[in-house]
Amino acid sequence: xxxxxxxxxxxxxxxxxxxxxxxxxxxxxxxxxxxxxxxxxxxxxxxxxxxxxxxxxxxxxxxxxxxxxxxxxxxxxxxxxxxxxxxxxxxxxxxxxxxxxxxxxxxxxxxxxxxxxxxxxxxxxxxxxxxxxxxxxxxxxxxxxxxxxxxxxxxxxxxxxxxxxxxxxxxxxxxxxxxxxxxxxxxxxxxxxxxxxxxxxxxxxxxxxxxxxxxxxxxxxxxxxxxxxxxxxxxxxxxxxxxxxxxxxxxxxxxxxxxxxxxxxxxxxxxxxxxxxxxxxxxxxxxxxxxxxxxxxxxxxxxxxxxxxxxxxxxxxxxxxxxxxxxxxxxxxxxxxxxxxxxxxxxxxxxxxxxxxxxxxxxxxxxxxxxxxxxxxxxxxxxxxxxxxxxxxxxxxxxxxxxxxxxxxxxxxxxxxxxxxxxxxxxxxxxxxxxxxxxxxxxxxxxxxxxxxxxxxxxxxxxxxxxxxxxxxxxxxxxxxxxxxxxxxxxxxxxxxxxxxxxxxxxxxxxxxxxxxxxxxxxxxxxxxxxxxxxxxxxxxxxxxxxxxxxxxxxxxxxxxxxxxxxxxxxxxxxxxxxxxxxxxxxxxxxxxxxxxxxxxxxxxxxxxxxxxxxxxxxxxxxxxxxxxxxxxxxxxxxxxxxxxxxxxxxxxxxxxxxxxxxxxxxxxxxxxxxxxxxxxxxxxxxxxxxxxxxxxxxxxxxxxxxxxxxxxxxxxxxxxxxxxxxxxxxxxxxxxxxxxxxxxxxxxxxxxxxxxxxxxxxxxxxxxxxxxxxxxxxxxxxxxxxxxxxxxxxxxxxxxxxxxxxxxxxxxxxxxxxxxxxxxxxxxxxxxxxxxxxxxxxxxxxxxxxxxxxxxxxxxxxxxxxxxxxxxxxxxxxxxxxxxxxxxxxxxxxxxxxxxxxxxxxxxxxxxxxxxxxxxxxxxxxxxxxxxxxxxxxxxxxxxxxxxxxxxxxxxxxxxxxxxxxxxxxxxxxxxxxxxxxxxxxxxxxxxxxxxxxxxxxxxxxxxxxxxxxxxxxxxxxxxxxxxxxxxxxxxxxxxxxxxxxxxxxxxxxxxxxxxxxxxxxxxxxxxxxxxxxxxxxxxxxxxxxxxxxxxxxxxxxxxxxxxxxxxxxxxxxxxxxxxxxxxxxxxxxxxxxxxxxxxxxxxxxxxxxxxxxxxxxxxxxxxxxxxxxxxxxxxxxxxxxxxxxxxxxxxxxxxxxxxxxxxxxxxxxxxxxxxxxxxxxxxxxxxxxxxxxxxxxxxxxxxxxxxxxxxxxxxxxxxxxxxxxxxxxxxxxxxxxxxxxxxxxxxxxxxxx
Length: 1299
What we know:
The chain is mainly β. It is built from four helices and 122 strands. The radius of gyration is 56 Å and the shape is flat. 33% of the residues are buried. Residues 1-27, 484-492 and 1191-1200 have low confidence and may be disordered.
């Protein structure tokens, strides 16, 4: 079933004006060329912003580019857009997009592509897009936005009043690819924006974004891809005004009209007389003062000579004339065509060094005290409800604030308690306020509030529900908000080492944009801090004490509270008593000697002095320095004591002494209490001084040089006046050898005892040879000799009459030389090859002969490369060279490849050796190792002469092993269509073929078969030549057969012409064409040169699957093509009225001229009579469908019909198509009458049920007694229609809808 909906139809009458068809007549719509959007004001208004939004959202406009642009309540984002609308009288008290329903005071767009994006912040007078607010704009809740003919906004519509609705079409297209930007504007400092919707026509990685701004050259923005359809771009700083962003893709482009954010004034330093300087603090001022103009007050007194104190944020100007009785506010700032008026910026009240911010909208006390208190921040200051405390403050507010609609009465921050007044809110809650009034301030109950009349200074107590105005003061003192952790000492709480540290805390009221913030700790001012918003990391100096206050000063004003912290108590890690001093090591000792005291036991340790700040203190030890020691710091809250530590002290104690040589030398004395001053230490051995005392390990080990002696002698150590025990002796020993080892080729180490420390007195022998003591170094228990002569031989070692130890040098190898191939022996040059040397190779002994410095060894058969060991620890590598002697067979290699046997030697592939066979020295070949001297090698397929391969072991190779490939030969051929198979042998890898001297394309090739495409001009007996890598073979036995390559068309009829294309069948050979098994058909020569073409007339009767074949003498190719007769089809049927006998027209292709036996719909009961053939594309007949009911769906929301099937039984086949539909009905107009309603339209034929008319709901009770003609339905009514309404008209299977 059809649904017909009346929609807006668009007719362009100029480049900017379109006509919209709607319920109440034609309205003019306008297209803005900048964005391609269309705007119109609907004929039906709305009483609220929400109803206005709904009125636009279901409308649409189809533009000339095929885009469907859906409607929405207009979103005005730039001054240029508003100017366009004002110029065309489209804004005159009409609803536009904007609401603060989600968050009071934060106005957001409520419709369109910008839906949800912030437009204006009432609290801080911050505009994010375009905000032309009128002076009547309300601080309180509003009911949407109304745009006036002046191009400004109000938000207080009259109750129950109908206002116009401005709808915008564009930005919500059905077709993707129109880019948009978030956020909608950019600060003049520049910033990042996202370009969304880059779909059709854009390659996101190559999109170019071009930016044009006033006063600057157009530039390409720097962009980074975010998603597949969006990118983030940086917009450079600018000086306000419009911005045009052009996006250029690979096949698409777009343009976005936006702007820099308008100027914003947050605070101002006011002045009232001519020539005075006025400073404005805010944002979006740009960088060029010449583009800025400022006026003061409602009369717009000029403020000239604008200068830029800080780019974008601070400007200054000179007041042109006295304000007189004019108010200072509002301030108007214009930058590069963008104008903003500010009614509520904070103004500086110099007498009290505070800022005051007044609101011109009356509010109840709860709103002022609960919604405004502590909700506003001016830079680092939090705002609170201000109390008028002086006549100067009253005068400042009178001169500054704009005149409200009623008397200015200000809510005061106090209320009555026990016949007194205290502050109501803020960090002064409960404190007694500083009061000012022109008369006595009345007392009242605690639920009353107080209003201050600004004009006369009178204070009245009123109900909390009364209306008053609010003034916020930004003058709170700095306030600490404590954390519970110290950074980075997370295991402590505001405790700092005496070296200093950093602590992190939160704070509020930390100052204005130009405030000086200073902290004071330990009586020292510091600005060594980092601040991120209200989080402060303060670095504290070195100090001492507990519960110390940190104060903050903002512009010299002290903080509201203090932050307490402590320095850690001193900690002693060790106490050492030495040389008359007590040395204390630890932490947190600070830096002042004067505050440090030390006690050892109960006795003071005199003259405590810091040796290292914070960590080491030394004092003069008392007589008894053995007691526990404590360090104390005199803190601000009393003594701060450390832990107790027992000192380390006592007489020296000897526990062991190393043995000494009878020749004397260095001895080691182990024990404790030697301390760390070598000058205090003396040693005696048997009562004789042991000189050259040295400290090896502080307090525990010393050495000295003992004199020559014998037997054992007592060792005594004296430290200062403290003498050690005398029960430990040193033993003087004759030399004893326990081992002799070789440490290098010409060095030995002799280990034992009694060698002393002077090698010059020793006699050292090896066998029959003496070793010069000048080559040796003695160290008590060891003797090391280096640089020994090479002619020393093995023998017994002795030192100055000691025991003897046999010793053998390890053999050394300096070089090896293999004999010539087959390398059966090796000559080894080295040293110490005595008679006991038994070389091994491959794990077995091998026969060797030679001298002490040379060996000649013979390898056993089939030896492989490896290590030759002279001794188990001395070896040399032996690497044999592979060699080649013969290859079998020696005949040429077939091009398909073959296997040969290679004979030679040292073909090794064991651990560490890689064996390979390489064709032409580089290409790996397949092989099998048959033995150390035999390989089975697979020569791959190939062709040509002078080939070779080598056998390679690691980096060594044999000589080249040469071979040749066999040449090609042809034995036979076979043809298949246009392809020829050449059979033979040794065709190689890449053969080429010519037939009759013409190159033939090779389709595939093996060593014995080549498949080629026969050239079109080939003869039946042409010569075939196969060439491969310089070798060739020829063949003369080629015979070709005729071939059909195509038949066209494959469907034919009515004696249409069919063309056959063939090869190898010239007209001179008298070819014949057959269709299936019928006799040959007459043919016509179309082309007498290859490819040859012949044509014939197809049969005129119906036929399917006829085979076409070509005959040439006794040679024929059959079943090479199949043709069928032409196939008819139905494409459309005209729509008859429902249940009325009427003619229909059937259109299609290849419709038969005769032989149609039956045409019907659904089944044979519903026939179409009087069949008339018009042409092969048109047939008419008379349809009798009186009893054919067309089913339709009524399941919501679908209300429509599927097409029915029409059938045609013809001479060849029955064809059908799902294209049959009844004629629909449609409504063109509805005319309400006094007591009836007339519905105009077409297709009103209701043969069975008559018309069914319902209003607003198709399921409601139909209107009774409706009469109709084919163009009009009239129904009586007993009530008047109210707009808007929807008419539903049903008849048969159709329903028409009119809105």
